[in-house]
Amino acid sequence: MVGKNVNYSFETMHLEASKSITPPRVKMEAKGVDVYYGDKQALEKVDLPVPLNRVTALIGPSGCGKSTFLKCLNRMNDTVVGCRVTGSITLDEEDIHSPTVDVVQLRARVGMVFQKPNPFPKSIYDNIAYGPRIHGMTRDRTELDQIVEESLARAGLWNEVKERLQEPGTSLSGGQQQRLCIARAIAVNPEVVLMDEPCSALDPIATARIEELIDELCNKYTIIIVTHSMQQAARVSHYTGFFHMGELVEYDHTEAIFTNPQQERTKGYVTGRFG
Amino acid sequence: MGFSWIGTILAILAALGFLVGNQRGQGLARLGRLHSLPRYHGVFVALWTALPGLLIIILFAVFSTGVINGMIMENSQGGVENAQVLSVELNKIQLIAEGSMPFREGMGISWDSVERMKNLYRDAHLSALFCVIVVGVMGFQYALRRINANFRARQEVERIVRILLVMASSVSIFITLGIVLSLIFEALRFFAVIPVSDFIFGLQWSPQTAIRADQVGGSGSFGAIPLFAGTLMITGISILVAAPVGLFCAIYLSEFASPNVRGWVKPALEILAGIPTVVYGLFAALMVAPAISDFGGQLGLDIASESALAAGLVMGIMIIPFVSSLSDDVINAVPQAIRDGSLAMGATEAETIRQVVLPAALPGIVGALLLAISRAVGETMIVVMAAGLAANLTANPLQAMTTVTVQIVTLLVGDQEFDSPKTLAAFALGLSLFFVTLILNIVALGVVKRYHEKQ
Questions:
Q1: Which ipTM did the prediction report?
Q2: Which of A80, A83, A114, A118 to substitute to test the interface with B, most B CBs within 10 Å?
Q3: Prediction pTM value
């Protein structure tokens, strides 16, 4: 951890970058998180506060641990055999690993969108209605219809699919499928949405559409996005964390990371000299 | 010298053909750009050398015995009363000629005919060898002459290989067709004696008929309803056992078991599929059926010592591995991504399995159940031993029942005339069984297809 320089509190972040932003509340916070896959350590002492109603981007070369970190936040790592997480991760100041927290409820509050669109083999309607149904969020069909319509509308997909809600979700194009998955994730009204390289399988037009969507969604949700595209991080995020070799090298306002990085490694990565 | 020798020679010829063709191709390649890789030229020549010869070997192997027997029969005058005696003698001659039986005086055959057969076989083999070599060399030369720089050897080889593939697949189709046709024709002979309506709608099955005029026997009634009812009952019971147990087992193995447990349990289950059905039959007849009977006795129920229930239960155990192993495979093939998608929505594992994984795996699971059902329908041994032979028409699983396959076996066991209705009834039963499973397959395919469209 030589020369590690991470700003833990938003107040102390670079003045020029943060002066227009009032210091936001911390929604989720990781403190000293280590992750092991068997004997191999994948993450080392990661401290990262996630601000409420902002977009936080995690960047870094492949295998640096950013996706692993993302999966810690809704405990999807629990399903990976041999994976061990230590340290504390809090959601609204409550440790998500504490015995009082039900992982099922945690995941309902912290939704996730995956790298590849993964619609269920069901109709478009049932894909969206899946979450509300299992969580018993609606009392009747009208309410469910309403949630489906709202979610699809918020994901910018409603106008494209409103005539064909009973068709299979897999019949949509790749970009539409990914927006369907976003709509599915927000249908259960989560507080945080994790996105694991949501645009890596999409063309530039679909990517632009999703980025717009992220911009709109962050009014209501806290978003954490893992991305390989630094342009994307610069375009959509307010805060950016740079991961390298399993550690969080630098975390700051996005502008600061891209224009005035404090670490040599960050500088090297964002200017394209390595990674 | 037998056909295996000729085959070996042919293989050597083909190998030579490959070497020469390959050489020729490489020679051409040195001069300029070749259309195909040199080895395709080699394969092309080898195929043209080997395949015509192979055809000749097959023709000789199929027809030589018949032709030679015919020639021997033509030659042997006197002492031969009828065809049956003749065929026995021919067999003897053949065995002696092959050297698998020593020749003794007083066997009713002459050493001359043995010698003659030996000679005929030798001639046949020699002429076959001659033909194979001639045709092989001709094919070899033809193929070699076609090779030049522009020759599309790869396409030619691929064409020949495709023809071979088509032939291989048509073999199974033709054999199936042959079986169905023979069933149909024999069944037609049966229906010439017994009206179709009696067979399909008859409620009485007692196929014992008098073989000779002086024998006492039933007039024979061939109503198949009791048999199909029995088949349905026993298959139904076995599926009621196997479907839930097998499916739950598959879900446990694919979703919950650690790799270690899985590595043990799956092979163990597959051993269950390897137990001979006779052993299952013993188990059913000697342990399950009496146990059920005793248990029923304690409840005050009158249960026969041979019951459809016992047969069905044991048959269900037998087909568990079919359901569990195949379902396990298809459940495993459901992409992890959609499982993760469901779990990340805050679904429990149960919800994920019930609402996402199983629907995605349903076509495969239906396929597994279907395979299990067809195994159960075709199973004979367990039923013979545990459910008895009595063709009762009853809805009570505690009584003895019998199935179509069991009756086919009993019809053909023992000395029979081949044209009596009793024997021919076996073909009619076989044909109806074939149609039942065919319809079952079509229905299941329809179900799967409709489900796919809905998705």
A1: 0.85
A2: A118
A3: 0.73
- Cβ-based contacts of A120 with chain B (< 8 Å): 338, 341-342, 356, 360
Q: Do B267 and B358 fall within a single domain?
A: yes
Kindly determine whether residue B341 and residue A135, on different chains, have CB atoms separated by under 8 Å: no
Question: Distance between the two ends of chain B, CA-based, in angstroms?
Answer: 63
B440 CA to chain A: closest CA distance, Å?
26
A118 neighbourhood in chain B, CB within 8 Å? 335, 337-338, 340-341
CB B226 within 8 A of CB B207: no
* B193 located within any domain: no
Degrees (nearest 5) of the Cα angle A132, A136, A141?
Answer: 70
Query: Confidence class of residue B169 from pLDDT cuts 50, 70 and 90?
Result: very high
- pLDDT tier at B247 (50, 70, 90 boundaries)? very high
Residues on chain A touching B348 (C-beta within 8 angstroms)? 104, 134
Number of domains in chain B: 2
Residue A103 burial (C-beta neighbours within 10 Å; 0-12, 13-18, 19+): middle
Q: What are the residue ranges in chain A where pLDDT is below 50?
A: 1-7, 14-21
B396 and B302 share a domain? yes
Residue B277 lies in a domain: yes
Is residue B339 included in any domain, yes or no?
yes
Question: pLDDT-based confidence at B452, cuts 50/70/90?
Answer: low
SS3 call for B439: helix
Give Cα separations from B344 to A27, A153, A181, A195, B436 (angstroms).
Answer: 19, 21, 11, 11, 45
Residue of B nearest to A180 (CA): B341
Contact A224, A56 (CB under 8 A): yes
Residue found by looking up tokens 């790869």 in the block: B154
Which domain-ending residue is among B151, B180, B209? B151
Nearest CB neighbour to B345, from listed A81, A170, A188: A188
- Cα three-residue angle A141-A142-A143, rounded to 5 degrees: 90
Interface of B with A in 337-366 (CB under 8 A): 337-338, 340-348, 351, 355-356, 359-360
Which residue shows structure tokens 């019809």? B411
> How many degrees, rounded to 5, is the angle at CA B437 between CA B431 and CA B442?
125
**What residues pair up with A86 in beta bridges, in sequence order?**
A34
Q: Are residues B256 and B393 in the same domain?
A: yes
Domains and CATH numbers, chain A: 25-270 (3.40.50.300)
Least CB–CB distance from B345: residue in A119, A130, A168: A130
Residues within 8 A of A (CB atoms), B 67-126 only? none
Q: For residue B194, what are the contacts with CB-CB under 8 A and spacing of at least 6?
A: B222, B421, B425, B428
B386 with B288, same domain: the answer is yes
Cβ-defined contact of B346 to A107 (cutoff 8 Å)? yes
Helices B308-333, B259-274: inter-axial angle, 10-degree rounding: 140
- CB-based contact A192:A27 (threshold 8 Å): yes
Q: Do B234 and B360 fall into the same domain?
A: yes
Domain range for B24 is 3-151
A247-253 and A239-244 as β-strands: parallel, antiparallel, unpaired? antiparallel
- Asked if residue B139 and residue B252 are part of one domain, the reply reads no
Most confident of B302-311, B322-331, B433-442: B322-331
- Domain co-membership, B284 together with B374: yes
Q: pLDDT tens, B112-142?
A: 777 888 888 888 888 888 988 899 999 999 9
User: What's phi and psi for A242, nearest 5 deg?
Assistant: -105, 120
Answer yes or no: is B133 within a domain. yes
